Amino acid sequence: MRLWLVICAVALTGCVATPKKSDLGAFNAAAPRSILVVPAVNKTIDVDAPSYLLSTLTVPLAEKGFYVFPVNTAKTVLEQEGLYEGEQIHRQPPEALAKLFGADAVLYVTINRWDAQYVIITTTVTVDFDYRIVFKDGTELWRANQRMQYSPQNSSGGHPIAMLVAAAVNAAIARAAPNYLPLAQQANQQVFVVGPTAIPNGPYRQPPR
């Protein structure tokens, strides 16, 4: 019986709690047309996390109808200004960052979690982000938090021992080389596009075909 409970636990996947609905009054009043995405603050031990996350942020904002400054170009320009680290960039006045690019608003993201935890025979991959959009005059327009988790499912049918072995193998693979990008993409989609914190459509939103 205990073996079966463990196997059932391994099969569980899921996303964490639904965020509260955002107050969009300031966002609607400001009506930004363009958004500058700056490098994230990284509170994790994975030094590659900010670069991976940065690559996932443009698409959902563009799909919502905003002009998004190319993130790699923006990163290069900031480095030319002597701004290399997320913490350093986030300390700059948003007015100065927006003026440097001619942006209407700036998106700041903080990476709280980007890790894989191994317990018994399951690995849980977790990402957790804080998001803020600030207008070019320094007014905060929107903020949200999103956490996503994933535990690889056991797809092996039949004998419980075979299922247990398959679960252990899947967990070991996830622990050795966790794939964070799909979770980051899902978090961004949820927070910007489809969840209760979704931002209003921008001026370049394409009607559905």
Any key phrases for this structure?
alpha/beta, 9 helices, disordered N terminus
- Terminus-to-terminus distance: 52 Å
Poorly predicted ranges: 1-16, 154-177
CATH homologous superfamily title: ABC-type transport auxiliary lipoprotein component
Q: Could you estimate the helical fraction of the residues in percent?
A: 25-40%
Number of domain modules: 1
Q: Tell how many strands the DSSP assignment holds.
A: 7
- Please name the CATH architecture: 3-Layer(aba) Sandwich
Please name the CATH topology: Rossmann fold
Which percent range describes the beta-strand content? 15-25%
Category by helix and strand content:
alpha/beta
Largest sheet: 7 strands, mixed
State mean pLDDT (0 to 100 scale).
82
Draw up the topology in text:
Elements: H1 2-11, E1 14-15, H2 25-30, E2 34-37, E3 41-42, H3 49-54, H4 58-63, E4 67-68, H5 71-80, H6 86-90, H7 94-101, E5 105-119, E6 122-135, E7 140-150, H8 160-176, H9 181-194
Parallel strand pairs: 2-4, 2-5, 3-5
Antiparallel strand pairs: 1-7, 5-6, 6-7
Helix pairs in contact: 1-8
Structural write-up:
The protein has 9 helices and 7 strands. It has 209 residues and is an alpha/beta fold. The protein has one domain: 3-Layer(aba) Sandwich (Rossmann fold). Strands 1, 2, 3, 4, 5, 6 and 7 form a 7-stranded mixed sheet that branches. The radius of gyration is 20 Å and the shape is globular. The relative contact order is 0.22.
